[in-house]
Amino acid sequence: MDTDPARGRGRREAPAASAFCPVAGGRLGRVGWGMKVFVEALGMASCLGPVIPACAAFRANLLRSSPSPDVDVAHAGDEAPRPVTICALPVATFGFSGVGRLVALACEVLKDVGTRVDLRGLGPETGVYLALPDPWERGLDLGEPDATEALRVEALGRRVLEASLRNMGLEWPGPRRFFGGGHVAFARALHAAQAALQNGGLRSCLVMGVDCLVEEPTLHALADGRRLKTPEQPVGLTPGEAGAALLLTTEGPAQRSTGAPQVMLHAVRLGEEPHPRGSDKPSDGRALAACAEAVLAAAGALRARPLLVSDHNGEEGKAREWGMVLLHLRALDASLGGLPAWYPSIGFGDVGAAMGAVSACVAVRGLQRGDAPSSVSLVFASADDSGRGAVLIGTTAAHPSRGALP
User: Fold this and answer.
1) What is the superkingdom listed in this entry's lineage (predicted)?
2) Which residue of 24, 59, 120, 171 shows the fewest CB atoms closer than 10 Å?
3) What's this model's pTM, rounded to 2 decimal places?
């Protein structure tokens, strides 16, 4: 299997007749394979609330930002420093810091998921895969100065998950894995979970991301790097905090009495950007576009033009890369030009390692509610480092397709 993501590959070899290619009428065609993976439940903790009201508020373009109580910034010409604008949870994380704040976020996510499924009934065949930040990037000293990033993330993950389960009175006998990588951390966790489910290693898996960018050490680091969005600097990010999760299963959930469509995880592909943030050359978007091409190829024939869900956070480098991605998609196939796009960071802020989880929840709820302008959503992830990823989700074929190809 060729796994070079920079050229849009990373998929199984297949007969030429079923390979991804533009065909007559600008349609994308390929026959998919593999065990189906369904989204059984969602959960979220965010500045806009739990998953259902939060996604509704996002679609209504409602905002709930607030001034940071801890950090002010001053620019040239300012008479006095001004508070940093953040997107923080209004109550649940108040008074917590460091690891405790991440635990508070994770507990709120578990509570929200628990309103839809009985978490106590999940056995050893259910895994929990958790996406987290590098603790060093959040000013957290876990006492392992010589550890690699992977070991630091695992140490943080074990502390967060064990404390969260203990606080919730839950025992989780299934396997646990932890993933870092900034905005791509959740895509990496989702990729691993899908593989475990399709290979028969698991029957279900809770894939969750938690992160917090609103605490003092992170805000100072962002301010020092001139990455914050302010009235004087509109090109920048708004720091946020959030947690979100998808409960995946290989057994299709029962049809809801409301008639809400079933949502499937079609494909996840990861890539590497040769020119990440800080390089002497800006990204040309090819690596991220190649991830999108790969998931479209792996998923099968499209029934609709996809909705794009981007992690673009307002920074100049992200904007440039995103613009190039749109050009590459249009060059790949004419039907991929002029696609509708959602930007979750507008409502939730930049939530770091939880960005992919929040984006996925927004996409899934849009599909379930029929608010999305398509029955297929393509979620993008672009980290500060070289990590890139794309996730394709959509409703089952049994439900009518919105945004259908002509």
Assistant:
1) Bacteria
2) 24
3) 0.89
